[in-house]
Structure formats: structure tokens, C-alpha cells
């Protein structure tokens, strides 16, 4: 299903409310909530609203376990562009989550350690009972996570090469495209698919063409987000400009 909101703020508040409800329902049952998280511009207001709910409405994250979708490779956690730093600044530094419950792909690994790391990332998610909810943005290439065109529907967590357009879109953060890492570690399409609920968010008319392809286009490895059409557990949450090309 597709839900369209007048603007990103209203949409983000609705998404944060769903996350908060999941966390509280799990708390009531004495269980953990296992969340798959995204970085980038799109989820920033969701995280801000979660921080507000923590501060003003006593939402606790003590029972929350998180797995981030991706990280650039190579990447030092302290670097300005690292997704570790992004998550700390946007969310983790402001809530009561147990640091041991945070998982983000490790951009500091040596090449030969990456495969074992990716296998253990998948295994850890499974041991915890799988992702209850995965939050996604969408790149202009149609990527979800950093699953660029050509990604297999059953792909797992792995090292990937970033698409040229993705690197161009990240150029501003890195002070030039030549400084954007060529690679990333990302959860796979298959990893994302196993989540019990998936929410893909997109704001802005710049995303309208790729949103149209993702929602209405033919299934294709050229637009990895089209695979989401195969899942019954996906909701596309859009603002009006991002939804403007949908029929
Ligand atoms: C980020 C991620 C990416 C972004 C996508 C959109 O963890 O996995 O797929 O969601 O590139 O980025 P923004 O939100 O910056 O437009």
C-alpha cells in the first residue's frame, strides 16, 4: 500500500508513532523490538520525533535492538560522513538505548574480514528473532540500503560497489565525488525482505520518477526497489511531491 501525506513532517510523525507503538507493545510483553534503521536525509525527522517522544512522553529504548542498513567502506566511525556518527547525532546520543544493542556495519574491517562480518551480521539478526520493522529510504538509482541496480532479490549482507549516481548524490557530504568511497557494506535485498514490516519513505519531487518506477514499474534488477512489490509487508509512505507521478 501507498500512503501519501501533505508533507514530510506529518508523515515522519506518523512513522515515529508506529515505531513507538511497536516498542511499547513489545515492552508490555517483556520482549525486545528489533529495528532496521536507515541513514540519509529522509529519516531525520522520524528520529527527531522519536527523540521528542523519549524526552516528553517517556518512550524508553531499553528494549530496542537496532541494525543499520549500511555503512560506507572504508569508513572510520569518527569521520564526519560515517553512518555511526550520523546515528549518534540524530538518535542514539539522545535516547536511553543500550549501546551494546546498536549494530552498524563496520567500515574499518580489513578486506579479508568482511565476509565473516557480513555472515555474523545476518546471524545476529536471526538469533534475535528477525527484524520487526525495517525503515527504508530510496536512492535515485532505485537502491534500497546500498543495493544498487543489478542486486539479486535474495542477496544478503555484503560488500558492494556504489553506483556513479549514488556517489554524485553523496558528493556534497564529502566535498567532491572523488572523495566518496567506492564501496559500502549493506544488508541485502533478501535481508530486508525478511523483516516482518517494511516502511519505505520518500519525500521531495526529486524522488518522484524513481518512486513511480518502484511502485508501478516492472520488476527489474535495474530498479532494486521494484522487488518490494513482491512483499505483502511493505508500505510506501510518501509526501505529495514524491507521489506526484503515480497514476
Ligand atoms: C541509507 C540508505 C540509502 C538511503 C537513500 C536515500 O542508509 O540505505 O538507501 O536511504 O540513498 O537517501 P536520502 O534519504 O539522503 O535521500
From TrEMBL:
- Please state every residue range assigned to the domain named Glucosamine/galactosamine-6-phosphate isomerase: 10-229
Q: Which domain of life is it from?
A: Bacteria
Name of this protein: Glucosamine-6-phosphate deaminase
Whole-protein residues included: 16 to 262 of 639
Amino acid at each position: 500500500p501507498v500512503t501519501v501525506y501533505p508533507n514530510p513532517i506529518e508523515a515522519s510523525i506518523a512513522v515515529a508513532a508506529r515505531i513507538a507503538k511497536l516498542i511499547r507493545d513489545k515492552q508490555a510483553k517483556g520482549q525486545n523490538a528489533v529495528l532496521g534503521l536507515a541513514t540519509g536525509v529522509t529519516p531525520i525527522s522520524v528520529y527527531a520525533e522519536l527523540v521528542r517522544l523519549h524526552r516528553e512522553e517517556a518512550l524508553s529504548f531499553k528494549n530496542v535492538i537496532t541494525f543499520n542498513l549500511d555503512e560506507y567502506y572504508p569508513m572510520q566511525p569518527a569521520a564526519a560522513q560515517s553512518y555511526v556518527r550520523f546515528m549518534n547525532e540524530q538518535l542514539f546520543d539522545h535516547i536511553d538505548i543500550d549501546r551494546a544493542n546498536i549494530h552498524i556495519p563496520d567500515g574499518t574491517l580489513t578486506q579479508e574480514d568482511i565476509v565473516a562480518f557480513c555472515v555474523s551480521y545476518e546471524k545476529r539478526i536471526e538469533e534475535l528473532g528477525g527484524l520487526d520493522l525495517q525503515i527504508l529510504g530510496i536512492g535515485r538509482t532505485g537502491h534500497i540500503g546500498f543495493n544498487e541496480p543489478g542486486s539479486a532479490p535474495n542477496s544478503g549482507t555484503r560488500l558492494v560497489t556504489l553506483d556513479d549516481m549514488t556517489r554524485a548524490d553523496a558528493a556534497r557530504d564529502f566535498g567532491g565525488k572523488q572523495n566518496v568511497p567506492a564501496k559500502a557494506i549493506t544488508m541485502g535485498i533478501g535481508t530486508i525482505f525478511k523483516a516482518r514490516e517494511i516502511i519505505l519513505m520518500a519525500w521531495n519531487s526529486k524522488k518522484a520518477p524513481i518512486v513511480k518506477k518502484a511502485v508501478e514499474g516492472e520488476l527489474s534488477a535495474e530498479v532494486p526497489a521494484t522487488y518490494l512489490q513482491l512483499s505483502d509487508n511493505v508500505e510506501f509512505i510518501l509526501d505529495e511531491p514524491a507521489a506526484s507521478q503515480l497514476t
